[in-house]
Amino acid sequence: MTRRVDNAAAEPQRGGFSGKIFRAQTLIVGGLCVIVLLIYLNSFSNDFTNWDDDNGILKNPYIRSLEWENLTKVFTPGTGGAYQPLRTLSLAVDHHFWRLDPFGYHLTNVFFYILTCIMVFLTTERLLPSLREERDDRSNLRVALFASLLFAVHPVHVEAVTWLSARKEVLLGFFFFLSLYLYLRAKGSGRLDHKILYYSLAFFGFLAAALSKPTAVVLPLVFLLFEFCVRARGEGSLSLKKVLLYLPFIILSLYLGTLLIDVMRQMGGIKAYSGGTFFSNLLLVPYIYIRNIKLLTFTINYAAVYTVHLPQTVWSAKAVLSLLGNIAILGCAVLAFKKAKILSFAILWFYIILLPVSNIIPISTKLADRYAFLPSYGWCLVLGIAFERLYRFRLSSTTPQFFKVLSVSGLSLMVLGYGYMTVYQNRIWKNTYTLWADAVAKQPDNHIALCGLAVVFNRAEEYEAARKLLERAVSNAPYDYKSLNNLGITYFHLGHRDKAFRAYQKALSLDPYMREAHVNLALLYIKREQYGAAESVYLHFLQRRDKDANMHYLLGELYRRMGRFADAKSRYEMAVALAPNVSTPYEALGRLYMDHLKDSEKALLYLRRALEIAKGSKRAEEIKALIDRLRAVSASVRQEADEKNPRER
After folding, report:
1. What are phi and psi of 363, to 5 degrees?
2. In this structure, are residues 484 and 452 in contact, taking their beta carbons and an 8 Å threshold?
3. Can you tell me the distance from the alpha carbon of 437 to that of 104, in angstroms, rounded to the nearest whole number?
4. Distance from chain centroid for Cα 452
5. What is the model's pLDDT at position 378?
6. Residue 13: its pLDDT value, please?
7. What is the CATH code of the structural domain delimited by 433-597?
8. What is the CA radius of gyration of the chain?
9. Distance between CA atoms of 205 and 172, rounded to whole angstroms?
10. Positive or negative torsion for Cα 207, 375, 161, 154
């Protein structure tokens, strides 16, 4: 017997709180935890990679301290690169407990992924009664189980979970679904005080999602999509009161969207229009959607990077097929809207969530597994509905259990297949070499993959192998300033100083703000003992980026080499002021006072601070040895003074 729900805001009269349903929910949540732990168990032994883990974790000064002064910097836009303060805060907590042991960071990533999967289950179960014709509690529970299970094991999520610098994705996932869940709780509550509480909590969940990754700005569109679907069933209405409830979400979304664009522009994440014009760039958008659909449905070999070629004309096969493919999928959403609004919601979810990275605004990375992390929920929801309908399907010519067995068997095979692919993909992220060797094998012409593998060879001092890879990368992408910079490093080590100089100059012509190319060019001048030229390079960079602590430190090192100790002291002190939780400038000041300024007390003060910061690292032992040497020298000096000036007894 079906029940009529007069208003979508009313709490559905379901058996969701009965003992049997509650036990089922508890078992499902426990099962999701176990399954995620099992398929990501082999990721716990993975190392850091040189793909953003260097700058995001190993060399990130903002994760070295949980002191209030540092936390205010973390939450201040423009001080820490991409504005993702909750990611930085979570990494700082990891650093506090684990220092630089990657195991702890992987544990946190998997923990937040488990929370995301749990919220996918709970959100789906609460979403379904308002968007499905079926009102049966057990049916909705099965859909929620099937969808969350497929979401938990989907291999496209490996990059978001196993890549430590992608912590933002699992944080975004948890808070995004938490906010939606709380919003749905508010809709289903009959008490005004409960509604206000849940709406407030949903807003703070949205804020947390946006502070994890600003692409969360699309969440209000998901709310509006839900309201549109519910209203179309005649179970809701759009009133002024509802508009006022949405207003804080919309204001925050607009503000953070503006902030996201501004930060990406400053970091070079926003590129020129593909093809040179806004309209030519739009040719890429339908293609990006189709490529993401392929990632979710037909991809077997996932890679760290993908090569994306722009459709050349509006009439090219790639452009036409991509456009027709999207029209067909959106057409399915329209056709399903009348009788299966949940299917329309799932399809439109995919299109809405992918909007910020669909290249309407051209971004540096056109396609990535992590971009499909949240959109994949739409695909998993469609599969969950399909398997549940098969589960309930009946034919007079078959036994009642036939389609149940068929549904569970098909679902199990898909879960096992996805799970195997996930476990396999975790091994690819084992370390920097395995990551980039796999990427080059799958995308042999991709300049990012070639450059990444070349960096591995450079660090292993296999410079000739690195040179071949980097020359291929530059040939395939002459605009790639990072490959040019790394090619300059390789030429430098091979003794080709003139080629290195030209590579650095070319990189800087493409990106005048590239920090690494400035550092390497200055180093080249230092090797030639052209200290004035090196100083000019550092100062030129600091004119644009005067808050760069490491550049002040390097300039201090140059002044120390030149014998300009007062200038060196000044630059070291600037580095300390800008990065108070980094040990290197403190150690440099300690050495300067000990070796040149002859002030043992200040030297000891700075070295102790450096030791305190570096505690637990390999560097700490060297600093400790330096302190012991300073104490020994100071004791010797005092002893000599006492012997020359004996005190009266």
Report:
1. -115, 165
2. no
3. 26
4. 18
5. 97
6. 43
7. 1.25.40.10
8. 29
9. 10
10. positive
| Three-state secondary-structure class, residue 504 | helix
By C-alpha distance, which of 145, 135, 139 is closest to 27? 145
For 278-330, how does the pLDDT look when each residue is reduced to its tens digit (9 = 90+)?
777 788 899 999 999 999 998 888 999 999 887 777 778 888 999 999 999 99
Answer yes or no: are the C-beta atoms of 486 and 455 closer than 8 Å: yes
With 0.70 as the threshold, say if the pTM is over it.
yes
CA distances from residue 201 to 110, 206, 234 in whole angstroms, order as listed: 24, 9, 27
153, 424 in Cβ contact below 8 A?
no
The contacts of residue 601 (CB under 8 Å, 6+ apart) are: none
Q: Residue type for 242, please?
A: K
Structural contact between residues 303 and 51, judged by C-beta atoms closer than 8 angstroms: no
Q: How many residues does the chain have?
A: 649
Instruction: Answer whether 603's CB lies under 8 Å from 630's CB.
Output: yes
Mean pLDDT, residues 102-113: 98
Nearest CA to 448 out of 492, 481, 426, 424 is that of 481
Question: Can you give the residue ranges of every domain in the chain?
Answer: 19-267+278-428, 433-597, 598-649
Q: Which long-range contacts (CB under 8 A, 24 or more apart) does 114-119 make?
A: 114/32, 114/33, 114/36, 114/37, 115/174, 116/170, 116/173, 116/174, 116/177, 117/32, 117/36, 117/148, 117/151, 117/152, 118/29, 118/32, 118/33, 118/148, 119/173, 119/174, 119/177, 119/178, 119/181
Residue 540 tokens read as: 């030129």
* 257 within 8 A of 355, measured Cβ to Cβ: no
**Helix/strand/coil (H/E/C) assignment for every residue in 193-260:** HHHHHHHHHHHHHHHHHHHHCHHHHHHHHHHHHHHHHHHHCCCCCCCHHHHHHHHHHHHHHHHHHHHH
Sign of CA dihedral 441, 444, 448, 451: positive
Q: What is the pLDDT of residues 42-52, one digit of tens each?
A: 999 999 998 88
Cα–Cα distance, 134 to 519 (Å, whole number) = 64
